[in-house]
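Changelog excerpt

This revision adds worked examples to the README so contributors can see how folded entries look when concatenated. The first example is reproduced verbatim below.
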Amino acid sequence: MTRLLRLVLTNFRNYDRLTWEPEGSPVVITGDNGSGKTNLLEALSLLAPGRGLRGARTAELRRHTPGTADRNTGQDTGETAGWGVSARFTDDRGPFDVATGMEEGQDGARKFLLNGTALRARTAIADHLSAVWITPQMDRLFGESASGRRRFLDRLVVAMAPHHARELAACERATAQRNRILSTQSTDPAWLSGIEDAMARHGVAAVAARQELVSRLNATGADPTGAFPSALLSLLCPIATRLAAEPALAVEDWLRTQLREARDRDRLRGHATLGAHRTDFALQDLETGRPAAEASTGQQKALLIGIILAHARLMSAPGTVAPMLLLDEPLVHLDAGRRAALMNTLLDFRTPVLLTGTDPGPFAPLRDHARFMRLHHGIFTDEGKGEGIPPEA
């Protein structure tokens, strides 16, 4: 069992300074809009590999404080010099400390520390900590662009296989380099071939990791109780189609050839028309066969939660690091039966589980099991184990 013992936020989002020592799990955090509920979940998500539940840039995470003047211009920047998130956890191996943030004057990527020691690769955190989450923005997953669905899928892959982040970054760098070179009139074929080789190697590896996760999620199903529908995922990607029938090395050779032959077309369009960066995925209810894009908002939310629960169960298997569950407004769009089923399911997870909402009433099924906290402008009030919430709230 993994437990969150302490969380400290410094100059992060709307928090000047917060020190919180939760008493057990699950924790239900309620408060008005803008009180800092999502910010707190985001802070925890940043301790795991990846860019956090908002995917925000590092400079956006520091606390906004009107009246702070820029040293050179004298203008109000509204920003503090640095920010930090640190936490202490404990698991079967004992306590460990994880921290991330930026110091005053620091540029570039944020720092990661494990037990006070700086890490060269943030993926090293994955040996100790992982996280999955649901946010209200994800309710629009099936109606937004393919890039949004791709980011969602890649977050799930990174949680299972942290090296996937390196493959994605290398593929993105190579793709951007190729786009820049093609935008010029004079191009070196040998140079382009080297970049396309990197696109092929890293791109095929990235798609293969996506394909592996999709297969495992489809085999796992959603929810043993049947409260949430099982979803059938399928990758929409010519690279994935090839990988289903050919060895990876053969697919790499095919992709290199395709990229070479597409240079003139891609130069005119201004971007690569083939590669791992074009992957999309489709989702449908396994029982009814209805595509998620055609389902109601409530059914889409149920399918999404089904995927998250299946993924969390995969990561709870022996030999893996079970994830924190960070659920921002998870009950929105769910009917009463599925709300109760979700909360009952969460009691089985032996990891930190945090849920947020504007009102404690809908969380009544957890009144005897969860710790209820109230947030107001970044300040916590402990409301105990839901003593004030009637059973039928």
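The second example, added in the same revision:
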Amino acid sequence: MAESTVDHSWDVIVIGAGPVGENAADRARKAGLTVAIVEKHLVGGECSFYACSPSKALLRPVLVTHASQRVQGSEGARVDRDGVLARRDSWIDNLSDKGAVGWLDSAGIDLVRGTARLAGERRVEVEGRVYEARHAVIVATGTAPLVPDLPGLRDANPWTNRDATTSPRVPERLVVLGGGPVACELAVVFAAIGSEVTIVEQEDRLLGRMERFAAEAVAAGLREQGVRIRTGAAATKVTRPGQGGEVTVDLDNGESVVADEILVAVGRVPNTADLGLDSVGVATDEKGYLPVTERMEVKGAVGDEPWLYAVGDVNGIALLTHMGKYQGRACGDLVGARATGRPVDPASMTPWAEGLGTVQVVWTDPEVAATGLTEEQARERGIRVRVVEVPMDSAAGSGLQAEGYQGRARMVVDEDKGTMVGATLVGQDVAELVHPATVAIVGEVPLRTLWHAVPAFPSMSEIWLRLLEEYGI
């Protein structure tokens, strides 16, 4: 492609203006590079408008109300449906990205609106105009909800997380396909604001990637909140006669579930179709993700030097916003160093901590907060494992959080190294307790050293002392 065909040039072009792309762009800009970011929808992306932010905005009033009901003297709290929805609308600015665009302006990052396609080495085409990246193109296009090819499902106009987190309407009956974090969290929300909710999960339990005891606790909590759970049952057909009519989901065990809306929460697919990958010699993996090196360089891209990178969900490493932002920061720093001739620091410019396992919180009731490896994952890696468990109410602060506090904490230990490699906590308000374990895992802090990190009394952080004492320190 001739130079004269280029409409504009920047040092770096980022495709996708969600939190991951924003982080990559910000770090590259702070390195002194000129940066443009391309977005076809809302600046802020899926997380800000349809996933993390709205779902947690919806969940917080519900969880706070439940927590209040467990404390003597404040049992009268109730969930206000209209207030919950209004809070959600405020958090997503009524689907306006004006604030996010303002941040780009303040950060000195140029915004290009439209759908982007790669158009050769270091070239990006947007709505017929061709732009050049002098140093790097960073792909941060994320993923979209998966709607499987189930007979009748697509014709039934199903909800995905996008519909569920932005709907102004609360259906009387909601059937949820899937048993992962999205399914469980939204089940909590809709059960609390007036829906009769049924979860259909083809596996034998919910939250299949987490410790089984955590999944069982979440299932028990959902049932207490009135959610019906059908595990070990796969949907075989969906029927919905006419727009807005009842939805019937037939299961392979002969049962049927009838609802007013159906929410599909069975996974994600990468946004790599029509990205122009063939123009730069790149092929996706069998699931459509972009294969990358440990430095987020896209494998197979034409050119003598690395110039094409992929960060966040689109590379399939860890489909979590915070892990994608971590990749974006490391990638932006790496691109900045390479472009300006500064030394490349592998310790800070390679997101190596992903190999230690990811941290994740499921904001159900009870909450699940997990980091590092599960027991099963650790054993699969050949680690000589010891598992330590204690009830959450063994920490003095738990009883102050709720009368009859229920929960459990597990620590997975590498016996040869004497370090923690995984932890899972289940119970009310455990989300804020998990980061110390993440620090210990990433830092490979010996358990005997952790014993000297004294928790405040009477706080729930005392649970870490209880785990160490159970271990024998």
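Reviewer comment on example two: The first helix runs from residue 19 to 30. The chain has a mean pLDDT of 96.
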